[in-house]
Amino acid sequence: MLRHKKILLGVCGSIAAYKAASLIRLLIKAEAEVQVILTTSASAFITPVTLATLSKRPVLSEFIKADGSGLWHNHVELGLWADAFVVAPASANSVAKFARGLCDNLLTATYLSARCPVFVAPAMDLDMYQHPATQENFRLLRSYGNHIIEAGYGELASGLIGQGRLAEPEEILDVLTQHFTPREFV
Q: Could you tell me if residue 67 is inside a domain?
């Protein structure tokens, strides 16, 4: 059901960013087109080269191309191009920006321009995940019509155990597949 679907994948700064590589592989195997937007902080966890190689497209992270050509990456065109916008992992910082309409980077500006369904898969430590401000941000995102793919429970990078793990790539793929499956087949 994902064949020829255009998936915009936002990758935020989180130790779980490594799972974006597996998600891209699954999406490509399902015959989706994948365009990655990587936040600056995410590039500390996974390289643009890895994501570009897997997605078969250049990874975008800035509005203006750094080569001095004056070429810019149009957030409006990106938002119109996509059939679905998936943010995985979504950091607490990006979730807060989405919820409050802040757009200081390509990812958040594209989010505000997107006309397609948005799926947010958070990954953060359990105290951040459970914080009332974060929970309010999730509530706001849902009220805007976004889909939250709940974080899993387990051991976190901090060594703590609780909710905050990025949903597994297979689970995210299943959510997208269900979304695009016509109701008569469900």
A: yes
